[in-house]
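Give me C-alpha cells for this 81-residue protein.
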Amino acid sequence: MQTLFSTAGLPPMDSFRRWREVISDHLMAVELRKLHDGPFSAKLEQAVIGSLVVTHATHGAMRTAATHRPPGGTTAPIRCS
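Here you go.
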C-alpha cells in the first residue's frame, strides 16, 4: 500500500484539523469530530489492483457523519509527494 496522507510528523495541535481537511476535501463529504482531547494520529493508504482501487484508513477515536455535497461538487485527487 502507498501512503497518501499521514499525520506523523505534524504538530499535535494540527493533526486532526489536517486529517479532517484531507478527508472532506479529497474523499467524501463528511463531518468529523474527535471523541477526546488527546493526541490524534491517522494514516490513509491506497493500493491499485488492476482497475480496482483499495483505500485503507487508520485513525484515532472520532465520530463521522455523512454530509451532502452540492450537485456538481467534486473531490480533488490526493497527490502523493
